[in-house]
């Protein structure tokens, strides 16, 4: 008998009919003799709807109250799924994050799971119940409701699988696996049978929202076998493993795009030692994460510093810097939120030179200007104007022949 954790995303539980489909899949897994823990998201659109209500009240509502509000989405789904399972003759019990309990730190809106007490869940499983757990939420040491960040139900699923030492964590969604690029942008994108944790972590960090970054980190750290599958069609999905594919040709595994960032340029700053610190220190002090950074070679004793932050932090970062413009002696502080980051990811890059040059030549031939570049061992990212995202991703997908299966 295996223990399986199945996570179903928002689209998969978007209507009562779809919840019934999920219930039948859970019952089928149980009929194969497995114990099943189900983690569910809020019904599709619900988290955004709730956030919209909060924004009608305040532009920056108190994070503790936002968590109380948005955690309700998942609570609705667990009750509806448990009722459906019961109606179909399957014993089931629902649990909120606090009831499990899933203990987190107190960082509202981006809480990290500190520990999970699996005793109750295990007892319910041993009593023959299907356990239905609310994704995305937990409780801090003081009893406050917390949430784990957008897409956080993936992390609930993986963390429960780790705590229960489950045999597999299955992420059911609206695509039948991890693709070489977002299939909504590239119609010829191809499903990957396997992908390494390392590559999946990069893809998730660089914008492929199919799995939340932390869920991949968690799965890698605790060695949880992780698979992405479709709720709506049968198939093997994509297995995320430690093994690298033994395929010589595979240099790039996937392309990701991220439209969540904004760019800030501080120009004409006197080029003294410590310039970068004087610009970025106050930004970091405000708890704003900086992603890419480029500092130009100084000319006439002054230099420019360009960096990117999350779009949600753009205004705040601009305010902070404008407040210090005089102190910094900067000529200008300019922002642009209509940017996008496009990244190529693949462990094969380690042993292949020339990928970056090829990427730049493809973008040049499409007339797309590159604003920033950053590279690591297994990825290359460029920042371009947002209006070129689709064009760039499709052109790169084609140029690197990602639609064609590699020969073994
Ligand atoms: P869920 O609600 O089930 O959590 P998400 O919307 O969070 O689903 O994630 C699934 C979506 O991720 C897909 O519909 C797809 O558009 C998008 N996506 C982005 N990049 C990829 C990729 N490389 N492979 C598969 N899906 C991707
Ligand atoms: N409902 C949450 C969200 O929309 C969590 C999730 O779906 O994973 O981000
Ligand atoms: Mg998701």
TrEMBL record:
Source organism per UniProt: Candidatus Macondimonas diazotrophica
Protein's pathway: Amino-acid biosynthesis; L-methionine biosynthesis via de novo pathway; L-homoserine from L-aspartate: step 1/3; Amino-acid biosynthesis; L-lysine biosynthesis via DAP pathway; (S)-tetrahydrodipicolinate from L-aspartate: step 1/4; Amino-acid biosynthesis; L-threonine biosynthesis; L-threonine from L-aspartate: step 1/5
UniProt-listed Enzyme Commission number(s): 2.7.2.4
One GO biological process term: homoserine biosynthetic process
Catalytic activity: L-aspartate + ATP = 4-phospho-L-aspartate + ADP
Domain of life: Bacteria
UniProt key word Nucleotide-binding: yes
Enzymatic class: transferase
Key words, A-Z: Amino-acid biosynthesis, ATP-binding, Kinase, Lysine biosynthesis, Nucleotide-binding, Transferase
Domain (ACT): residue spans on this chain: 264-338, 344-408
Record-listed ATP binding positions: 7-10, 173-174, 179, 184, 209-210
Gene3D superfamilies for the chain: Acetylglutamate kinase-like, VC0802-like
Record protein name field: Aspartokinase
SUPFAM superfamilies in UniProt: ACT-like, Carbamate kinase-like
GO cellular component terms, semicolon-separated: cytosol
Recorded family membership: Belongs to the aspartokinase family.
Positions of transmembrane segments: none
GO molecular function terms noted in the UniProt entry: aspartate kinase activity; ATP binding
Binding site residues for substrate: 47, 74
